[in-house]
Amino acid sequence: HARQSTHGIFLPHLVASLEQVEQTYVMVKPDGVQRGLVGEIISRFERKGFKLTGLKLFQCPKELAEEHYKDLKAKAFYPSLIDYITSGPVVCMAWEGVGVVASARKLIGSTDPLQAEPGTIRGDLAVQTGRNVIHGSDSPENGKRETALWFKEGELCEWTPVQAPWLRE
Ligand code: ADP
């Protein structure tokens, strides 16, 4: 999109350098919580350098699980997926940063943990698609939608980490 300065002057050289800050919704699923992987998983995103803007332990009601996974309603595994996600507490996280959506998906790895690369969360910590320990939004649009779905207003924090100038020039 073309952007204008406050004086209405078009600055094309600035347009190219403006990088979009994205939001993504990441969730440790009930198996990750039960297996004691919460700290390990949060730590991977922290160490990467993304900014945490929301965090809570939460028992997901059935209606919310159904809304979150509504695109998969026709799948044979949908009922067991809803049972799985509501079977115990999840850890909800909102992360922010330039390129965070695609990068989080890379850190998470392929849906099937047996296909996921070593070094990824699923590649290192899981063995089956039906117990793949973590969710991450698949597009910037879904990142916004899912963050708004799982967090109420007032549950997200706007802050500036002290390390910010050491992460991006
Ligand atoms: P991802 O979570 O990697 O974005 P999908 O959007 O395709 O993957 O699926 C959402 C979730 O549904 C998966 O993470 C997994 O928990 C579950 N799921 C997907 N495919 C299957 C399957 N074949 N059997 C059981 N569960 C599945």
Automatic annotation (TrEMBL):
Q: Does the keyword Transferase belong to this entry?
A: yes
Catalytic residues, per the record, are: 135
Q: Which GO terms describe its biological process?
A: CTP biosynthetic process; GTP biosynthetic process; response to hydrogen peroxide; UTP biosynthetic process
Q: Tell me the ranges covered by the Nucleoside diphosphate kinase-like domain, including all copies.
A: 21-158
Q: Does the keyword Ribosomal protein apply?
A: no
Q: Name one GO molecular function term.
A: nucleoside diphosphate kinase activity
Q: Which gene encodes it?
A: LOC110418797
Q: Which UniProt keywords apply?
A: ATP-binding, Kinase, Nucleotide-binding, Transferase
Question: What family name appears in the similarity comment?
Answer: Belongs to the NDK family.
> Per the entry, which co-factors are needed?
Mg(2+)
Q: What is this protein called?
A: Nucleoside diphosphate kinase
Give the binding site residues for ATP: 29, 77, 105, 111, 122, 132
* Enzyme Commission number: 2.7.4.6
- Shown part of the complete sequence: 69 to 237 of 237
Q: Which reactions fall under this protein's catalytic activity?
A: a 2'-deoxyribonucleoside 5'-diphosphate + ATP = a 2'-deoxyribonucleoside 5'-triphosphate + ADP; a ribonucleoside 5'-diphosphate + ATP = a ribonucleoside 5'-triphosphate + ADP
